[in-house]
């Protein structure tokens, strides 16, 4: 069986795959890490949550969680 994952956008590059993690370098230079899982029927699924590693917006380092619409954000600043 071959699993096909259509996750790349134009200019993106898959730079790593380890166990169930896929690392995608975005055209902007950001790095997004996705998790691949299999449901009870062994159908592959991409977790709706991902980790986005991006450039600092100031002098401090921060980690935050935002919903898809960016209406809600929590984090450490």
What keywords describe this structure?
77 residues; mainly beta; five-stranded antiparallel beta sheet; two-stranded antiparallel sheet; 7 strands
Task: Give a concise summary.
With 77 residues, the protein is mainly β. It is built from no helices and 7 strands. The chain has one domain.
Looking at the structure, what is the overall shape? globular
- What count of helical segments does DSSP give? 0
- Our measurement of the CA-to-CA distance between the termini, rounded to an integer number of angstroms, reads 45 Å
Fraction of helical residues: under 10%
Task: Encode the helix/strand succession as letters.
Answer: EEEEEEE
Radius of gyration: 15 Å
Number of strands: 7
Strand content: 35-45%
- Unreliable segments of 5+ consecutive residues: none
* Biggest sheet overview: 5 strands, antiparallel
Q: How many structural domains?
A: 1
- Class based on secondary structure composition and strand pairing: mainly beta
Mean pLDDT: 85
How does the SSE layout of this entry go?
Blueprint: E1 13-18, E2 21-25, E3 31-38, E4 44-46, E5 51-53, E6 63-66, E7 73-76
Antiparallel strand pairs: 1-2, 2-3, 3-4, 3-5, 6-7
Tell me what the structure shows.
This protein has one domain. 0% of the residues lie in helices and 43% in strands. It is globular and about 45 Å long. The chain has no helices and 7 strands. The model has no long low-confidence stretch (mean pLDDT 85).
């Amino acid at each position: 069986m071959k699993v096909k994952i259509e996750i790349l956008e134009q200019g993106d590059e898959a730079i790593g795959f380890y166990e169930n993690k896929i690392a995608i370098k975005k055209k902007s230079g950001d790095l997004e890490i996705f998790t691949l899982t299999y449901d009870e029927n062994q159908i592959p699924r991409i977790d709706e949550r991902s980790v986005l590693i991006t450039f600092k917006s100031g002098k401090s380092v921060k980690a935050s969680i935002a919903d898809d619409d960016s209406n809600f954000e929590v984090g450490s600043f």
